[in-house]
Write a structure and sequence with these properties.
Layout (H helix, E strand, L loop, with lengths): L12 H16 L2 H12 L6 H4 L5 H27 L1
Helix pairs in contact: 1-4, 2-4
Length: 85
């Protein structure tokens, strides 16, 4: 299990600098998380959606965005654990 491995106590400066620069890269790579933030901030559900997708609903829209956000958070957590170890 990756979480049971000890964190190195005295990493080299090169490792610390690399980890520092990889954190924004890891966040930027999470398309699911970025898409969720964009959808929550900019897009609202409207009833006209049902003209093209008759089974669409407001709750399905929000559940899909919630699941996408959870997926992005777990992916970011995995990247973070790999980066720290």
């Amino acid at each position: 299990d990756a979480l049971d491995l000890p964190i190195p106590e005295n990493p080299s400066t090169q490792v610390l600098v690399t980890q520092f620069f990889m954190l924004p890269v890891a966040v930027a790579m999470q398309d699911d998380l970025i898409a969720t933030y964009y959808l929550v901030a900019n897009i609202k559900y409207h009833e006209r959606v049902q003209t093209n997708s008759p089974h669409a609903s407001n709750i399905k829209f929000h559940v899909a965005n919630l699941c996408r956000g959870i997926d992005g958070m777990f992916s970011l957590l995995v990247n973070f654990v790999i980066l720290i170890k």
